[in-house]
């Protein structure tokens, strides 16, 4: 399918108020869409289903599924036109939103509550967030999605819509998990600072400790379900105009119980805190707003892929010898927005430790907001 036809098809589906998701995986050169044929709400029961899932932060709430057997799948090659991307980005930066003093005071107070709880020994780290509503002149999700594609080639970029649930877009840098057969991959991502034309700059103790907390938690909790665990040395990665610390974690699953793996990982310390139960309770009781799908997870669930063992395309006879593997690839829903009532609701947060500075934590959320604001259209 050619690019123009691809975007026309998903726009028609959207205008018909039918559920769909369009997305591009990190560093890939094509986009894909799963178009559900009816308006029903399907949910995940035990993670043996096949399709595209969208799960909220609160795991007690339903995980939404676009089932493959009740959907049409389309894809096309997508070439980034970086020149247009940069012009759009710079234009929007000049129109950055003005946060009210009340919003700033509320978030600083929330961070202070988190630091106090840490000093009282209630938990080691907590991730606290806020939502900011930005007026937009018109709701044109297809164009915003294209702008995200242009600006975030290394992120998982998506546009998700269900008429009964909502309209979400995002460009997330964080993988929750990737499973191909029995091979398992995830990452530990934490620490944030603004990019200023130099990636290799020294990190502070707060960010290094924060990233190590996430890494240790993931490794310790995977011990019973993953063997041959390998962890890479933390390195700096760039996501939009922000920098993060990342370690890659891989291994081999001991069983095929995907539900157990998901429940073990989600929510990770990178989007909730440590310990999980105490920090999740603190978030639900103190943030004073509903995260909904922000810091949940989304992606392909149990998709069958075929790989030929024959590297010589001319030898068609040997192409019959191929392997079919079941792959699941899920991403944490960060750097995202919800669009409704001619407003873009932008969700941002940051990890709080004993060394956190409330004013700097506020500035971090402002920087993250600017990152998403840059792709909004006039």
Annotation keywords:
single chain, 378 residues, alpha+beta, Anthranilate synthase, 10-stranded antiparallel beta sheet, 9-stranded antiparallel beta sheet, 8 helices, 19 strands, ADC_synthase
Protein described:
- This protein has helices at 3-15, 82-93, 101-119, 141-151, 205-222, 258-265, 276-286, 358-373; strands at residues 20-24, 30-36, 42-43, 51-55, 64-67, 71-77, 125-135, 156-162, 166-172, 175-180, 183-194, 226-231, 235-239, 242-253, 273-274, 297-308, 322-332, 336-340, 343-352.
- The protein has 378 residues and is α+β, with helices and mostly antiparallel strands.
- It has one domain (3-306, 322-373): Anthranilate synthase (4-Layer Sandwich), CATH 3.60.120.10.
- Strand 13 (235-239) and strand 14 (242-253) form a beta hairpin.
- The protein starts with a helix and ends in a 5-residue tail after the last helix.
- Residues 83-96 have low confidence and may be disordered.
The CATH homologous superfamily corresponds to Anthranilate synthase
Distance between the termini: 30 Å
**Would you tell me which CATH topology applies?**
Anthranilate synthase
Helix content: 25-40%
**What's the number of domains?**
1
Rough outline: globular
Radius of gyration: 21 Å
Oligomer kind: single chain
- What is the helix tally? 8
Uncertain regions: pLDDT < 50 for 5+ in a row? Answer: 83-96
Which structural class matches the secondary elements?
Answer: alpha+beta
CATH class: Alpha Beta
Order of helices and strands: HEEEEEEHHEHEEEEHEEEHEHEEEEH
Q: What fraction strand? A: 35-45%
Second-tier CATH architecture: 4-Layer Sandwich
For the report, how would you describe the main beta sheet?
A: 10 strands, antiparallel
Pfam families: Chorismate_bind
Protein name: Chorismate-binding protein
């Amino acid at each position: 399918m050619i690019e123009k036809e691809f975007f026309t098809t998903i726009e028609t589906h959207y205008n018909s108020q039918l559920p769909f998701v369009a997305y591009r995986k990190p560093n890939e050169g094509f986009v894909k869409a799963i178009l559900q044929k009816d308006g029903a709400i399907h949910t995940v029961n035990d993670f043996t289903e096949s399709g595209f899932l969208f799960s909220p932060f609160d795991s007690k709430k339903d995980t939404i599924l676009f089932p493959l057997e009740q959907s049409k799948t389309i894809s096309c090659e997508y070439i980034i036109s970086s020149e247009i991307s940069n012009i759009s980005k710079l234009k929007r930066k000049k129109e950055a939103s003005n946060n009210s003093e009340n919003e700033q005071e509320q978030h600083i107070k929330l961070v202070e509550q988190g630091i106090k709880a840490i000093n009282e020994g209630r938990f080691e780290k907590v991730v606290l967030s806020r939502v900011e509503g930005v007026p937009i002149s018109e709701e044109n999700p297809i164009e915003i999605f294209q702008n995200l594609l242009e600006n975030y080639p290394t992120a998982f970029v998506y546009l998700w819509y269900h008429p009964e649930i909502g309209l979400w877009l995002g460009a997330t840098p964080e993988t929750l998990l990737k499973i191909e057969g029995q091979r398992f991959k995830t990452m530990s991502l934490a620490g944030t600072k603004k990019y200023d034309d130099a990636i290799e700059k020294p990190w502070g103790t707060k960010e290094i400790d924060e990233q190590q907390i996430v890494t240790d938690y993931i490794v310790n909790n995977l011990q019973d379900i993953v063997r041959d665990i390998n962890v890479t040395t933390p390195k700096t990665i760039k996501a939009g105009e922000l920098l993060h610390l990342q370690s890659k974690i891989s291994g081999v699953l001991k069983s095929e119980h995907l539900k157990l793996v998901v429940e073990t990982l989600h929510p990770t310390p990178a989007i909730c805190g440590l310990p999980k139960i105490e920090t999740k309770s603190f978030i639900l009781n103190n943030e004073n707003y509903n995260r909904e799908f922000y810091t949940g997870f989304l992606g392909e669930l149990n998709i069958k892929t075929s790989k030929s063992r024959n590297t010589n395309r001319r030898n068609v006879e040997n192409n019959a010898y191929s392997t079919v593997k079941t792959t699941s690839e899920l991403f944490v829903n960060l750097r995202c927005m919800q669009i409704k009532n001619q407003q873009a609701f932008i969700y941002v947060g940051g990890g709080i430790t004993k060394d956190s500075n409330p004013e700097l934590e506020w500035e971090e959320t402002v920087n993250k907001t600017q990152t998403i604001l840059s792709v909004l259209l006039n």
